[in-house]
Design a protein that fits this description.
Strand content: over 45%
Order of helices and strands: HEEEHEEEEEEEEEEEEEEEEEEE
Distance between the termini: 32 Å
Helix content: under 10%
Shape: globular
Largest sheet: 5 strands, mixed
Radius of gyration: 19 Å
Number of strands: 22
Amino acid sequence: MRRFVSRSLFLTSFLAASAVSFAQSDYKVVTVTNGGTISGTVKWSGPVPHALTFPITKDPQICDPESNKTADLERLIVGPQGGVANTIVYLKNIISGKALELPEQRRHLNQKHCRYIPHILLVPQNATLTMMSSDATLHTIHMDGAATFNLPFPFTDREIRRAMSTPGLVHLRCNGGHVWMNAEMMVVSHPYYAVTDESGSFEFTDVPPGTYQIVAWHEGWNLLGKEHGYDVLTEHSVERPLFSEPKALEKSVNVSGNQVSTVNFVVSNK
């Protein structure tokens, strides 16, 4: 029990600190007339680790229709050309720029075959996150960090909406006993955020000229073991995967008007 409590306190402290680091409430929207572009990639170096999996211990007819027996935890996705997907890239110290616009699909969360889709969410501050479940079983989305909700989904295809008022990192997991389900959400106060696909690519347009810190943030891909959790339906203790800390790389980038600046990141197990 002591290990569980200390781990929970560590997670709460870490998420609170992360929420502060991602928060940037003083951002101002201005007209950008001579903005530059930042483009680049996040690539993997070295042998690619085996995909992290976890035993499917509940509702296999719903969660495991292909009888794989285990679920891919989706913590590290490396594409054919070495691109690292699901990396959040953002400008750290930008205080003004274009209006906040982010991809709509990153603001809508579905629970399907006991997976969170998409695995990484980007929601503008004060915008609404729309959630639903396509699974005919009880899911409960538990959020820690910049948002703290515990939302049950007893019915299929019924949307629940919540406004995300505080910028920062939010960790999502299922308290309905589907312990392998995990996702990350960033609630952001400016538009210079992107999530890489399997090519590892990202791009920011209409960036005001200046020098910025650009960060590539990844949730982490190592499985440290198991920790105790809770199934709200059975009221029993369960074991959920215990992940390593996130990884963050940071570089400086200079942006000139109407020019393209290139920034490439390399991540590895080293």
